[in-house]
């Protein structure tokens, strides 16, 4: 039988007790003081609120949270019960677990009379979500409404941090941090006592848990411990808030036409599934440009609508241009929705008062993401689409309207729709693979789009001496890039292919292709059009069957230093002549580049409007060496031969596609390619096309890339012979270089430039530098780009400078300036 004295006081080593009455208020209070509905902050730093550093003493391993079904597990060196004073104390390496939350401290006392909890020494509270609170002293009431914490440090899983000399909680809603410091940057690992990249100090930081807002009084922003800005007062949503109504950071810009400008975005979190942003831009020369955006996310997708409008104060700044008007504006929208796991549909839409509105005001939709470094969009796309992707099939249907930024809107087609469907049958047919594809295209254009290709045509804008005979070699002064009227084509193609390997290792691949096109064209009789195409209504059916055989015989040689494979390749194709060659519109097959990449393509045209006909043989040899110590080299050399019938690449069509491509003769130009990768760092490539008769180089490209830990660089040299029948009257030669250097752990400098060697000038370039880490972004870019306008007006060279600054969880600001001049 235990004595009463023994029951009143127990002193044991590593004593564990389940204390339901003791545990619920204590843990709930500790967890609720800082975290209940609140700021999701945390910290692994000393109590000082002057700067952030790591705690020099390694923290204890966090105790494993335990779900105890509403009961508490207490572990301590000593547990004392004072029934007379109604106090319960746990002393020495105290560890408490309750419903996924744990507390560590040197000493914890709960006074049942005053209903207050007092914890002292090396307090560490970890809740079920991983948030950690450190303190030296905690004193809380059991209703969570008031209390204080001395030397508070807080840290969360999303790496936001706060420290304060003291925190007081009142009214169950407000927490006041005295001499508080806030940052979203981790302390420096190499120098833990070094201040973080940025931090915000405040004489008082008030957290309103109901509104989930942080209010800073007498705040200063520091970078590396050096004060950079002072604000007597500012507020921001606490880091738990992903969407909060309020003003966002302003953005600044300048331009010669609208002057200096500042944008003041206001974000409105209307509901959990939709919101809006109002972003007026106040300009010194043109007045206020109103901008607004509405976004909504539904269960199967999302959409957004943006609107713009300005009543210009000084339209004369755009004299002689479409912007010389009082009101300018526009609207654009996009959305995408999933029908199921394989099908999506969506839209993009743009409507503008004039085609230069986006570019004149440098709106976000016009800015290039700089993926190509040296280009800006020349058009905006409005489209409605439906896309489906299967395991071995693909479907895409869309109707498209292009809004040209050049002003030649009547020369741009409207795509009624374009529909593509590809499928590979999942079971063999006659031992081979069968695939098929279809394409339906329908478009209309108001005015013919001529492209002058001679000096005379550029001078007078006329198309003279054009030949109506597609087989004649009389040069035209123009190309008909787009026919006026309506054009519809339906294409269906099926292919069978099977590979055999004989006993000596030869690979034989027979194939058969059947293609059919149904074409309907109604071409307007506009001046000059009849020189290229028959005007009026045209109906045509075009069939193109083809059979062929591809032969490969790889020879493999193994040496101590590596393995070499030499593979002769021959391909023979038999098919009839291309019917209606050059007499039908060509809208999607105007690009023709013959090189080693398409030497063995059965049809070398890039689109459906032209189809290669006649018998042809493609021959070449490929050699690949794989070195044992890494690295490889691949070489391909070959030529194409027109065996019989009409050579489709020797036919004049509306765009002269195929002429001067290297395939227009019976024996094509030689094409070659060399790729060399000595290791993962370097890559070199050389591509060339050499005239078969004269051995003159008609096309040459040399490219090198290098990528190291801290820097990467690429250089492309291009040299292209004149192609007068395509509008290139002189040889083109130039360099395109890009580079990116990581000058420090988080600093990157990058740039790109294009140098026209014929004109001996640097015509476009971009230079940028940026700092990026988990809590801070600083980026600056200087960009040049050309804007092309209607008529014979020379292109306008634009210069723009863009600056962006971002502080994670607090602000993201940007500014830009630009100017332009005719070059």
Quick summary of this structure?
The protein is mainly β and 823 residues long. Helices cover 4% and strands 54% of the residues. It has four helices and 47 strands.
Describe the protein in words.
By secondary structure, the protein is mainly β. It has a domain at 73-244: lipopolysaccharide transport protein A fold, CATH 2.60.450.10. It is 4% helix and 54% strand. The chain is built from four helices and 47 strands. The chain has a 27-stranded mixed barrel. Strands 1, 2, 3, 4, 5, 6, 7, 8, 9, 10, 11, 12 and 13 form a 13-stranded antiparallel sheet that branches. Strand 12 and strand 13 form a beta hairpin. Mean pLDDT is 81; it is low at 1-66, 367-373, 464-475 and 788-792.
List the helices and strands and how they pair.
Elements lengths: L3 H5 L6 E4 L1 H16 L37 E4 L1 E5 L4 E12 L2 E11 L4 E11 L5 E10 L5 E9 L5 E10 L3 E10 L14 E11 L4 E11 L2 E12 L8 E2 L3 E5 L3 E5 L2 E6 L2 E5 L2 E3 L3 E12 L2 E11 L15 E12 L4 E10 L4 H4 L18 E11 L3 E12 L9 E11 L8 E13 L3 E4 L2 H6 L17 E5 L2 E13 L2 E2 L5 E17 L12 E17 L2 E5 L2 E13 L40 E13 L4 E13 L25 E8 L4 E9 L6 E11 L3 E10 L11 E11 L4 E10 L4 E12 L3 E12 L8 E12 L3 E12 L1
Parallel strand pairs: 15-47
Antiparallel strand pairs: 1-2, 2-4, 3-4, 4-5, 5-6, 6-7, 7-8, 8-9, 9-10, 10-11, 11-12, 12-13, 14-17, 15-16, 16-19, 17-18, 18-20, 19-20, 20-21, 21-22, 22-23, 23-24, 24-25, 25-26, 26-27, 27-30, 28-29, 30-32, 31-32, 32-33, 33-35, 34-35, 35-36, 36-37, 37-38, 38-39, 39-40, 40-41, 41-42, 42-43, ...
């Amino acid at each position: 039988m235990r004595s009463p004295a023994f029951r009143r006081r127990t002193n044991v080593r590593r004593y564990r007790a389940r204390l339901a009455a003791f545990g619920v208020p204590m843990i709930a209070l500790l967890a609720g003081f800082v975290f209940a509905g609140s700021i999701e902050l945390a910290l692994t730093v000393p109590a000082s609120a002057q700067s952030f550093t790591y705690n020099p003493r390694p923290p204890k391993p966090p105790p494993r949270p335990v779900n105890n079904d509403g009961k508490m597990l207490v572990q301590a060196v000593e547990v004392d019960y004072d029934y007379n004073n109604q106090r319960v104390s746990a002393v020495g390496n105290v560890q408490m677990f309750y419903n996924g939350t744990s507390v560590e401290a040197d000493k914890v006392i709960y006074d049942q009379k005053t209903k207050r909890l007092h914890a002292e020494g090396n307090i560490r509270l970890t809740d079920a979500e991983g948030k950690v609170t450190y303190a030296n002293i905690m004193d809380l009431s059991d209703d969570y409404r008031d209390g204080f914490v001395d030397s508070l440090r807080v840290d969360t899983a999303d790496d936001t941090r706060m420290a304060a000399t003291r925190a007081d909680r009142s009214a169950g809603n407000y927490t006041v941090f005295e001499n508080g410091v806030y940052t979203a940057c981790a302390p420096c690992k190499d120098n833990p006592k070094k201040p973080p990249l940025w931090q915000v100090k405040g004489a008082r930081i008030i957290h309103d848990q109901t509104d989930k807002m942080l209010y800073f009084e007498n705040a200063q922003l520091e970078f590396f411990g050096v004060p950079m800005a002072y604000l007597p007062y500012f507020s921001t949503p606490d880091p738990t808030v992903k969407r909060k109504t309020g003003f966002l950071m302003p953005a600044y810009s300048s331009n010669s036409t609208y002057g200096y400008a500042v944008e003041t975005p206001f974000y409105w979190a209307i509901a959990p599934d939709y919101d809006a942003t109002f972003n007026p831009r106040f300009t010194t020369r043109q007045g206020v440009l109103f901008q607004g955006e509405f976004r909504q996310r539904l269960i199967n997708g999302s959409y957004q609508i943006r609107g713009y409008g300005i009543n210009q104060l000084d339209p004369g700044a755009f004299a002689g241009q479409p912007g010389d008007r009082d009101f300018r504006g526009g609207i654009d929208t996009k959305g995408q929705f999933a029908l199921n796991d394989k099908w999506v549909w969506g839209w993009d839409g743009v409507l503008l008062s004039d085609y230069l509105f986006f570019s004149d005001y440098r709106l976000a939709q016009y800015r290039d993401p700089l993926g190509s470094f040296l280009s800006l969009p020349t058009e905006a796309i409005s489209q409605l689409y439906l896309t489906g992707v299967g395991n071995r099939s693909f479907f895409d249907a869309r109707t498209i309207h292009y809004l040209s930024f050049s002003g030649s809107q009547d020369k741009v087609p409207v795509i009624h729709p374009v529909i593509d469907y590809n499928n590979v049958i999942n079971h063999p047919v006659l031992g081979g693979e069968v695939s098929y594809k279809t394409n339906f295209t329908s478009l209309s254009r108001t005015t013919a789009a001529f492209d002058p290709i001679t000096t005379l045509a550029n001078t007078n804008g006329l198309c003279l001496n054009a030949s109506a005979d597609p087989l004649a070699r009389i040069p035209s002064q123009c190309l008909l890039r787009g026919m006026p009227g309506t054009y519809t084509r339906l294409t269906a193609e099926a292919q069978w292919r099977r590979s055999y390997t004989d006993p000596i290792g030869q690979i034989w691949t027979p194939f058969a292709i059947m293609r059919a096109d149904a074409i309907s064209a109604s071409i307007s009789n506009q001046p000059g059009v009849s020189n290229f195409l028959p005007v009026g209504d045209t109906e045509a059916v075009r069939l193109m069957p083809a059979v062929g055989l591809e032969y490969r015989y790889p020879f493999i040689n193994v040496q101590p230093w590596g393995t070499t494979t030499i593979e002769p390749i021959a391909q023979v194709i038999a098919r009839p002549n291309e019917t209606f060659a050059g007499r039908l519109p060509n809208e999607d097959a105007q690009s023709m580049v013959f090189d080693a990449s398409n030497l063995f393509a059965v049809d070398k045209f890039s689109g459906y409007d032209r189809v290669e006909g006649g018998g042809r043989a493609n021959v070449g040899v490929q050699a690949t060496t794989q070195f044992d110590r890494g690295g490889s080299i691949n070489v391909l050399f070959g030529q194409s031969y027109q065996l019989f019938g009409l050579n489709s690449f020797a036919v004049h069509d509306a765009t002269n596609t195929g002429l001067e491509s290297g395939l227009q003769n019976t024996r094509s130009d030689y094409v070659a390619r060399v790729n060399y990768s000595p290791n993962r760092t370097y890559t070199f490539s050389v591509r060339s096309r050499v005239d078969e008769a004269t051995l003159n180089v008609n096309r040459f490209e040399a490219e090198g890339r290098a990528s190291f830990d801290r820097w990467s660089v690429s250089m492309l040299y291009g040299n292209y012979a004149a192609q007068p029948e395509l509008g290139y009257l002189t040889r083109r030669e130039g360099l395109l270089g890009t580079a990116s250097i990581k000058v420090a752990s988080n600093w990157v400098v990058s740039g790109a430039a294009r140098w026209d060697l014929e004109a001996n000038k640097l015509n476009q370039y971009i230079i940028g530098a940026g700092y990026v880490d988990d809590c801070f972004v600083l980026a600056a870019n200087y960009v040049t780009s050309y804007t092309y306008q209607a008529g014979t007006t020379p292109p306008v060279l634009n210069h723009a400078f863009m600056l962006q600054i971002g502080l994670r969880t607090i602000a993201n600001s940007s500014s830009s300036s630009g100017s332009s001049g005719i070059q």
